[in-house]
Design brief:
4 strands, 59% helix, alpha+beta, single chain, 4-stranded antiparallel sheet
């Protein structure tokens, strides 16, 4: 009988056994169910009376309408090394998942060998009957397959897929944090530009004041004390200039690191040309947090941990494997593939733990504990995300009020300085009034710039906290 015909009964038997086992099988371990959320439905600080539907804008940084910022973000996404490392981790996770998924399919291999053999001529009685030498050549296809009767392979694949998604959301989380860091560092740079401009005007004003005091001293209408006060104020402004210039250089260096461009130089520009941030819609839903990559990463870690319980529980049950071989074996190479040289085998094997001193139970307990830790981490991530959004909304509103107050202070301080300078020039006020007015105006201008920068940064923080912001038109600058 030909070898191929001899293999048919064995193949049919293996197929029948496999089908029976698969039909009778079940997937052990808990199916994933998302934990119940303990968050409020809406953020109370934006007005629960309206139920607005907000959508995430994936390119939220473009809402600031700044070409330089857009360019810096593009450069950071292309060249930042932390992001490149996250991409590499994702690729490694995807490769690992493909390796786990391969267990769903039979493994087919080639077994080929050639040997020269000698059999001893010594018989059992000790008489020598002459040695025997012969060749042996063999070539066969082998097959092995684990029947996933209890879902171990399925649960392993489920965990691997979740880990791939976790790596993907981890990359997205780094990407979001990177864009936010670039945006905040850029706003700091523009704030330093504006502070340098204010300080430049302050220097000019104090140099002019020193000239006036010097002239009055020479005319006998001012004292040496007033001149010393004018020089002290001028030196203070020069120190302020050096300090702000240093901070701007540090911000520029940090942007160079974030964008992968050491030695980056950015031309000065005005902070106030950047549009004011959009206002969040009333009734902003907390369900927007589902778009945050760190929240989705925490959930996928939970999915993987949940599936690992099934993998651990499958160790309680027998594992069943199918193996097969089909090929040829002969002494002469020319006869290797002849009908009489055919060889085949088909086997089914079963292995089951009987006593392992609690090892399997410990593995299940460990997997369950890791799942409970993942649940706590997921809920903590949700709660932290909710707090970050709430904080950003509060900051956005309060910084707007703060900016308006400091703007009014700047206007009043400028009028006070004009009056003090006029009265001093006319001899109706002491130079100390001019100094106080200059210091007040300088401080008010710096506070105004800081509040405006903080207001813009609060918008960045809200965009980040929501995983990308919301769709809304920008307010006009003012």
């Amino acid at each position: 009988m030909p070898a191929c015909q001899q293999t048919l009964p064995a193949i049919r038997l293996a197929a029948a056994v496999t089908a029976t086992l698969l039909l009778a099988g079940c997937v052990v371990g808990p199916d994933y169910v998302r934990p119940a959320s303990t968050l409020p439905e809406h953020y109370p600080t934006v007005g629960a009376e309206s139920r607005a539907t907000a959508q995430v804008n994936p390119e939220w940084w473009t809402l600031f309408n700044d070409a330089t910022l857009n360019q810096l973000v593009d450069q950071a996404l292309a060249a930042n090394q932390d992001l490149q490392a996250a991409v590499a981790r994702l690729e490694a996770s995807e490769a690992a998942a493909r390796a786990v998924g391969a267990a769903f399919y039979p493994a087919v291999g080639l077994d080929a060998s050639a040997s020269r053999n000698r059999i001893s001529g010594e018989t059992a009685s000790g008489r020598e009957s002459g040695s025997l030498r012969y060749n042996n050549r063999r070539a066969a296809l082998t097959l092995s397959y684990e029947v996933d009767l209890w879902g171990r392979v399925q649960r392993s694949n489920e965990a691997a897929r979740a880990e791939v998604l976790s790596s993907r959301f981890g990359r997205d989380s780094i990407r979001l944090a990177l864009i936010g860091q670039v945006a905040n560092e850029y706003l700091a740079l523009r704030s330093h530009d504006a502070q340098l401009e204010v300080t430049r005007h302050t220097l000019e004003s104090r140099r002019e004041s020193r000239k006036i005091v010097q002239a009055r001293l020479e005319a006998g209408s001012a004292s040496g004390l007033e001149l010393a006060q004018a020089e002290s104020a001028l030196s203070g402004a020069q120190g302020q200039w050096s300090q702000v210039k240093r901070l701007r250089a540090l911000a520029e260096n940090q942007l160079g690191l974030l964008t992968g461009q050491p030695g980056l130089r950015i031309a000065a520009a005005s902070l106030e040309q950047i549009p004011l941030p959009p206002t969040p819609p009333a009734g902003l839903p907390s369900s927007l947090l589902a778009a945050r990559p760190d929240v989705r990463q925490a959930e996928e870690n939970l999915v993987a941990a949940n599936a690992r319980i099934g993998v651990a529980k499958a160790a309680y049950f027998p594992s069943i494997g199918l193996t097969g071989l089909y090929g040829g074996e002969s002494v002469a190479l020319a006869d290797l593939f002849s009908g009489s040289a055919g060889i085949w085998s088909a086997a089914i094997g079963l292995a089951m733990p009987i006593f392992d001193a609690g090892k399997t139970g410990a593995g299940v307990d460990q997997a369950t504990a890791i799942q409970q830790e993942s649940i706590a981490t997921y809920r903590k991530t949700l709660q932290t995300a909710f707090r970050e959004v709430s904080d950003a909304i509060v900051n956005l509103g309060d910084y707007a009020d703060e900016e308006a107050a400091f703007a009014a202070q700047v206007a009043a301080s400028r009028r006070a300085l004009d009056l003090a300078q006029t009265r001093y020039a006319s001899g109706y006020a002491a130079y100390l009034d001019v100094l106080d007015s200059q210091r007040t105006l300088n401080a008010a201008q710096l506070l105004y710039l800081a509040s405006r920068k903080n207001r813009l940064s609060a918008a960045v923080d809200l965009f980040k906290a929501l995983g990308g912001g919301w769709q809304a038109p920008l307010q006009s600058a003012g």
